[in-house]
Amino acid sequence: MIDRISGILIDTTISEAVVDVNGVGFLVFIPASTYDTLPPTGKSVSLHTWLGVREDALDLYGFATPEEKNMFLMLRTVSGVGPKVALSALSSMNVQNIQSAVAQGDVNTLKTIKGLGKKTAERIILELKSKVAAIQPATQSGHAAPRNIVEEAVMALVQLGISREKATSAVNTTLNSLPKDPHPSSEELIKLALSAN
Q: Does domain 4-63 have CATH number 2.40.50.140?
């Protein structure tokens, strides 16, 4: 098993990265959340990886953080969820929002993931709810962040040129600074997150 890969980033797209390790170029499939954290080509990069073994191919998947990798592997345990759908989930939502959607049984939010239908979304909730309940993050006020509002705010910041990682951090920090159970709108979160940076 290839658990981690470190080398020089020589090429990248939003879904793939090529990492040169001692003269060998490894093609690594990545989610958009990882793409947002990649350095410029020619710079050193290190990714947490998982090797998918098929009859006709060996596919390497890479992630910026252990949390992304663990969520990918957790999703892969669900029948009907392949690597492409698991990557699509991480490209559509951050780890915390996926955990929250599963913990709260939010089928509609999971259905927004490309390639994921209602039945598979329901299966994900059924099989993973108990697993994510223990690790579901909460804001400092003790309340889980509202999934749809947070994601709208994050995506708006990404469209303004901010990386997904920084946008997610800014929105979460803003939520944590608000009074208990604030119920902010996505517009309010965007304005507050921008003013804080």
A: yes
CATH topology of domain 67-133: DNA polymerase; domain 1 (1.10.150)
Q: Which residues of the chain fall below pLDDT 50?
A: 136-145
Residues 28 and 59 sit within 8 Å (Cβ to Cβ): no
Read off the amino acid at residue 25.
Answer: G
Where do the H-state alpha helices sit in the chain? 32-35, 66-76, 83-92, 95-103, 107-111, 118-133, 147-159, 164-177, 186-195
pTM of the model: 0.67
DSSP annotation of 196 reads: T
- The pLDDT value given to residue 197: 62
The DSSP symbol for 65 reads S
